[in-house]
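Please decode residue identities from the backbone states below.
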């Protein structure tokens, strides 16, 4: 009986000692846990990485490429055709010219013209000159052909009616800009119009001088 009481007392003593030891260990560890918690609370996350200009093309938004602007050109329609009739007051002379301008392989213009010169009176002769001028969109002079001069006699004798074919070349650099043309025919008894281009150079506004005979050129957009 006494032995059982002694064992019971011993167990209680041991348990009490273990309890005090566990409490002591807990008191020692609590400050350590507190410091670790504070350290973890103070940890900052690294800032998010922002993509810069060097972002790979595969990660960039798809932007449609800019299309080059379409360029259009306005060109004359060939052949350029026209005619001019003139009878000159104070004389019995008349002139008629047909013009045909086509484009050569080198880009220049082939001007082909046929001019008829005639005299209606019996005894009076006639002398006339002709040239073709081409103008730009503002009716400024671009180029003038050489001048052709033809003479005829009266109907009573000699040749009172003649037809001549003549040609010239419009420069390639100017041909695409042709928008108007004029067939200039002049009574030329005193050689004042032997060179119609020189005569035009003395005129301040060519478009006004030629207004009544200017013809427009058909164009096409390409």
């Amino acid at each position: 009986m006494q032995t059982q009481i002694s064992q019971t007392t011993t167990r209680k003593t041991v348990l009490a000692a273990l309890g005090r030891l566990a409490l002591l260990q807990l008191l020692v560890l609590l400050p350590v846990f507190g410091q670790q918690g504070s350290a973890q609370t103070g940890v900052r996350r690294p800032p998010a990485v922002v993509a810069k200009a060097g972002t790979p093309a595969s990660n960039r938004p798809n932007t449609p490429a800019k299309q080059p602007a379409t360029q259009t050109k306005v060109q004359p329609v060939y052949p350029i055709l026209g005619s001019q009739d003139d009878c000159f007051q104070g004389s019995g002379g008349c002139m008629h010219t047909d013009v045909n301008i086509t484009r050569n392989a080198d880009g220049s213009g082939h001007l082909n013209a046929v001019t008829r010169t005639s005299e209606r009176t019996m005894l009076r002769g006639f002398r006339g000159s002709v040239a073709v001028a081409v103008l730009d969109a503002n009716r400024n002079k671009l180029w003038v052909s050489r001048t052709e001069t033809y003479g005829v006699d009266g109907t009573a004798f000699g040749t009172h009616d003649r037809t001549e074919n003549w040609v010239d070349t419009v420069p390639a650099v100017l041909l695409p800009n042709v928008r108007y043309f004029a067939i200039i025919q002049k009574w030329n008894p005193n050689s004042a119009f032997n060179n119609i281009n020189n005569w035009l150079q003395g005129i301040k506004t060519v478009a006004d001088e030629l207004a009544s005979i200017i013809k427009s050129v058909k164009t096409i957009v390409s």
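Observation: The first helix runs from residue 2 to 41.
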